Structure formats: structure tokens, C-alpha cells
């Protein structure tokens, strides 16, 4: 009986040692946990500061990853896509809202502006 229980007795401490561990699989290399929102915002601000007009949507996605929000509009001047990336914190509720993001405006897949003024002008 004791020999049968031995493997379980050894397994219990190992399982208790894993309590609180997080294992992340996949993602874009920037997975954020509690308290890491500051790192995420800083990374986004740094990348946005390096933007240049005319950049492709694919280039930007490879640098910034998945946006927090996105919009698509069809207009006379062409298809417009707006991507929103979190860059600052307004509310301490743990939920990202558009007013905590910087909008990046693309026309026909090319960056034409960023920031609130560029978003208002579309």
C-alpha cells in the first residue's frame, strides 16, 4: 500500500510549487500581465514616435502588433482604416478604452496621420 502511495506523495509538493505560475503560449512577444500596462504603453509610445508618413499597414502591424481597437471607413478619398493603440491611462479600472489610445490613420493601406487631430479630420 505504501509503495502505491509514494508517487502521489512526491507529486503533491511538485504541484504546490506551481501554484501562481503563468504559462504563456504564442502571442506577439508582448503579452502583458497585471501591472505591466506601463511597459505596454511605453513600448507603444516609443514605436509611435518613430512612425513616418507613408508607412504600410503591414510594416506597422509587425512593429506594434494587434491594435486595441480598429475601424474601417469607405470615403470618397479612398478606404480609411484607423488603428488604436493604448498609450496612456485615464481610468484605473483595468479596461482599455479608446480615450486611452492613440489613433493611427491609414488611407489605402498607407499611414497618413496619427493622433486625435488626424482622427478628427477623416
From TrEMBL:
Keywords for this protein: Signal
Name of the molecule in the record: DUF3192 domain-containing protein
Source organism of the structure: Bowmanella dokdonensis
Amino acid at each position: 500500500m505504501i509503495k502505491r502511495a509514494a508517487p502521489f506523495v512526491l507529486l503533491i509538493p511538485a504541484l504546490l510549487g506551481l501554484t501562481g505560475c503563468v504559462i504563456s503560449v504564442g502571442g506577439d512577444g508582448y503579452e502583458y500581465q497585471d501591472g505591466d500596462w506601463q511597459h505596454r504603453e511605453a513600448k507603444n509610445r516609443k514605436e509611435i514616435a518613430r512612425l513616418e508618413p507613408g508607412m504600410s499597414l503591414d510594416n506597422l502591424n509587425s512593429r506594434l502588433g494587434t491594435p486595441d481597437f480598429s475601424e474601417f471607413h469607405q470615403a470618397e478619398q479612398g478606404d480609411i482604416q484607423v488603428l488604436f493603440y493604448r498609450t496612456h491611462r485615464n481610468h484605473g479600472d483595468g479596461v482599455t478604452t479608446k480615450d486611452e489610445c492613440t489613433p493611427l490613420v491609414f488611407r489605402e493601406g498607407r499611414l497618413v496621420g496619427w493622433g486625435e487631430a488626424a482622427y478628427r479630420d477623416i
